[in-house]
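Have a close read of this protein, sequence plus structure tokens, and explain what the tokens say about the fold. Thanks in advance:
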Amino acid sequence: MGLFDFFRRDHGEKVGDADTPTADELKSHLTQIGLPTNGLDIQVAEDTVTVRGSAASQEEKEKIAVALGNVKGVSRVDDQTAVIAKDQGAGGPDQPTVPPTGQPASQTQFHTVETGDTLSAIAKKVYGDPNRYNAIFEANKPMLKDPNKIYPGQVLRIPPQ
């Protein structure tokens, strides 16, 4: 995924007591919302979080980056994680999977919530159907607990149609 800009350092969920959360606080936050942290190395430098390690899927990798970026005090996430498929891939067991040449690893889009946005409005804009809001909600679990509780500045994963 690389460098992910969230721009709004003053928006997001407050984690810890300081203006910028520590690596341990961020790891604890990921655990609290139900994302795995085993094998992740998180480092914080000013408002930039660097995450290294492995994720079990592209979806998990994206959720970790978005969850970290939606924390107050974080404006950038440098995602250096690799997707590891157990017992698969050209390199043998536990080796990173590599997409076929010329094809992206993910078709996932990202949307920064604006004032007045709802998941239905975003679904209508992206998919042409407001009733597809649940696809966006499901793609952002466990970060979202309620489809009616999103906030301006929050970045959401938008799964492919």
